[in-house]
Specification:
Radius of gyration: 21 Å
Distance between the termini: 78 Å
Strand content: 15-25%
Order of helices and strands: HEHHEEHHHHHHHEE
Helix content: 55-70%
Structural class: alpha+beta
Number of helices: 10
Largest sheet: 3 strands, antiparallel
Strand order of the largest sheet: 1-3-2
Length: about 240
């Protein structure tokens, strides 16, 4: 019996060591950039936090692409955006460079970061996502319809909820929530990309196009490409027209 226990402990110790080694051998150190275009009444603190989140989200996307291919994390087909957003919210980053550029009436806050990402960051984000989903399930009907948002600047948590609402197919509630976020983060391209997706689902191509226009003007290359390549949608002549 004693020999069996010792053998079991040795196997467990070996497995743990292998897992630790695998984790250690798959830590990504990444440098990325993020930016946020500022309104005249926007604060530097808001701009910095959104730019930082954008940079961290780019890093998470990069690491996730390789970790998922190797089978070290799930592919997260339906909840990828919310998991990746929450992972970006939590990872630590070193700011290497930051500056505020002003051209005419437009100011853009830019920064460059270095961060480390590993598989456990995605696991923690998945746990947090499940926790938030259970918490939101207990909201009253009035809370669900009004979608009150916190004044705290937390882009990772806020945008993750958007993707969660989309996954739950709460289309109209998603629009209500995004309208609130638009006031909180007036020049964040991710909000308008989420709006474009939601309006598409609701068969509202005109509003979808307007949202893509806004995201494109804010520097979102995907939105610009979509505007260029989509010619017709739901019998609506889409075309390329960047609205000023």
């Amino acid at each position: 019996m004693r020999n069996f226990i010792i053998a079991a402990l040795l196997i467990l110790f070996s497995i743990n060591n292998v897992a630790s080694a695998a984790e250690g051998n798959n830590i990504f150190e990444i440098e990325t950039e993020g930016s946020y275009r500022m309104e005249t009444d926007s604060t530097s603190d808001l701009a910095k936090r959104v730019a930082l989140f954008n940079a961290k989200r780019k890093a998470v996307d990069l690491a996730g692409r390789y970790l998922s291919r190797k089978g070290l994390i799930k592919s997260y087909e339906l909840n990828k955006d919310e998991i990746y957003s929450l992972a970006a919210k939590e990872i630590q980053a070193e700011i290497l460079e930051e500056k505020q550029e002003t051209v005419g009436k437009t100011s853009t806050y830019r920064l460059r970061i270095r961060c480390k990402i590993q598989a456990s960051d995605f696991v923690k984000a998945e746990i947090e996502d499940t926790k938030q989903e259970k918490k939101e399930a207990k909201e009253s009907y009035q809370e669900e319809m009004e979608q009150p948002i916190s004044a705290e600047i937390d882009p990772g948590r806020d945008i993750a909820k958007t993707y969660r609402l989309l996954r739950e197919k709460k289309w109209r509630i998603t629009i209500i929530y995004l309208n609130h976020l638009e006031k909180k983060y007036p020049n964040w391209d991710s909000i308008y990309m989420a709006k474009a997706i939601t309006h598409y689902i609701l068969h509202e191509p005109v509003f979808m196009k307007n949202a893509l226009n806004k995201a494109c003007r804010l520097g979102n290359n995907t939105a610009c490409d979509d505007l260029k390549n989509i010619k017709k949608l739901h019998e609506h002549d889409f075309g390329l027209q960047i609205i000023d």
